Amino acid sequence: KVKSNNLDVKVESELETEEKGVEQESTRESDSNILDVSSDYPREKHISIQRHLADLEKLANLKEDEKKPCPLCPEEKLKACYSHKLHRHLQNLHWKVSVEFEGYRMCICHLPCHPVKPNLAGDQTLSKMGAHYHCIICSATITRRTDMISHINRHVNKGETESRFVTVPAPKSSQVLKELATDVQVLPNYSTPQKTDSYFNPKMKLNRQLIFCALAVLAEERKPIECLDAFGATGIMGLQWAKHLRSAVKVTINDCNENSVTMIRENCHLNKMKVKLDATEEDNGEAMGDGEENTDTIEVTRMDANVIMHLRAFDFIHLDPFGTSVNYLDSAFRNVRNLGIVSLTSTDTSSLYAKAQHVALRHYGCNIVRTEYYKELGARMVIAAVTRAAARCNKGIEVLLAVALEHFVLVVVRVLRGPSTADDSAKKIRYLIHCQWCEERIFQKQGNMVEENSYQQLPCDCHGSMPGKTAVALGPLWSGSLFNTGFLRRMLIEAVQYGLDEAQPLLKTLVCEAECTTSKHFSTHSPSDENKQEECGVYIKTANTSAESYLVPGKRKSDEVIRNAAKRQKSENSAEHPAFYYNIHRHSIRGMNMPKLNKFLNYLSEAGYRVSRTHFDPMGVRTNAPLAQFKTVLMKYSTPTYTGGQAEGPSHRPGDAQPGEQARAAADGKADNADFLQDDKSAVAAALFTKDCPAPCAAD
């Protein structure tokens, strides 16, 4: 027993000494790591990373009488050589193709420190050694110079620029930007999505102003309203809502990124607002003004957008994810209140604008091709997805606004609760028949019966005159109206009230497009203001309406109001704007000069058709005229373009030319007025020699 006890004591003492040794070694390693982090930048860098060319030459230990090898190349690539040749080698091959970062040069390295792929025979020693760069921050090896520059930029975007051994991001410097009297603090890399915690796009200013106007219109209908910015980022949009609408809205800004939530809280304090976070209210007393009572409180949450929309009900929801928003539509319509508004911004323009058709089929379930009206096609595709998501929740929609610009598609819809409204909205989703020869288009007729010949629905006769199949079926798409004129007019009033200069011209264009009129007939007041008091089943507060006609928030509409709204929608269907538009350049006649766009709109209007310009295309014409009549009017008022000797030299107007020049112009046939050239040459010559000729002036 004594011997066994002694053995146990010896084993325990040996184990204790071993544990102490391991602890000492671990503490030494941790101390060495701490020294590495706190040491001067950089520490233990690769020999290919130098500040000056002279430092690189010191590694080679150049001597005039001795041959020295290159420190960055193996002997198989460059044998030992004299100093003058080695100097040129280091300068031309390594130094000139280096990547510069904070005073250091990451020169290209040919040493076998980068693993290379074996050849076909499996012999790696005989294969070519891969040239590469060593990262100064994370010691990674990258082969291409462009990839190395991108790799360094990613480190800079993440803030990892202090040392190659640093694992914790360095403190990030921020800057303050201002928009609509709202200050936001952002990081230097705020313009790179998915790589920053404070993404802020200045190009989306117009988008934010349109959403603000829509929320301001809703705030006039009922107060207070609960609104949600599901993807806050910097919180700029929610801050603008709370700062200008104040007590009319209760703003909730959500983001799933912890760093973004921290940035949103800082921006709230920067704009002198209270922050409500995790059911506690943080009051920034220092931010208050002298004697100013700040009642603006913003709730900041950190959770997934689908989760917060499932848990809580809102009157106004805005979705602006990076890319498509179809993943959040079911959650958005699940708890949105009756007569509330859902706005969504889609930035996946590659799929919406038919550049990635397989992605559009995967996300939206639509078959599309590139057409002349591709922007409106993308907007109708988004609305169709919104309609289906709302119908699954027994809700219908009324489209208030649909805007498709260069880098985003904005859709604003009002939610109408009830299965009947959901059915009415779902019936407006149809397929579109598009002719690929003349680009004529028409929505398929309603009904479940199979058409024997779908080409008969098209107004054109391309199928009979052209070989093969000439048309394709696109969709399913939204076939209803894209705008609500009364809502747009009220948005324009709010834009003028809050001084939103960029949104006002676009809203004026949208009002003209919704009414299908030209800008010269535009007026700030609707011709039937008395009939516009009810809009989408919502009673608008006007001076002539009584207090009993106002909508009480939180209560369902009565059956009578629903029937009146349905009748109102049926009566306004005839006044809806025509679907899609024509590009005047796409349908121009070869060898003819087109008239000016505004003049062409007047010609179509005089022919008895509704016509307007469209924001989708600066050269687009929205009209209810068929394509054949559109081309007929375009052909009628186009002037021929003359080639050969007639087209040479500048063209002169008859009234501006001198008498001598008029004679030469009449002799050479250089007159610019095509109408008179087509009539009679003798009459044209007589008119040209007459100083005050009434006929050309009347024609001009």
Automatic annotation (TrEMBL):
Residues 9-31 have a biased composition (Basic and acidic residues). The lineage of its organism: Eukaryota, Metazoa, Chordata, Craniata, Vertebrata. Residues 135-155 form the C2H2-type domain. The keyword Phosphoprotein applies. GO terms for cellular component: nucleolus. It is found in: Nucleus, Nucleolus. This is tRNA (guanine(27)-N(2))-dimethyltransferase. The keyword Hydrolase does not apply. GO terms for biological process: tRNA N2-guanine methylation. Keywords: Isopeptide bond, Metal-binding, Methyltransferase, Nucleus, Phosphoprotein, RNA-binding, S-adenosyl-L-methionine, Transferase, tRNA processing, tRNA-binding, Ubl conjugation, Zinc, Zinc-finger. Belongs to the class I-like SAM-binding methyltransferase superfamily. Trm1 family. It catalyses: guanosine(27) in tRNA(Tyr) + 2 S-adenosyl-L-methionine = N(2)-dimethylguanosine(27) in tRNA(Tyr) + 2 S-adenosyl-L-homocysteine + 2 H(+). It holds the Pfam family TRM. Residues 1-37, 641-672 are annotated as: Disordered.
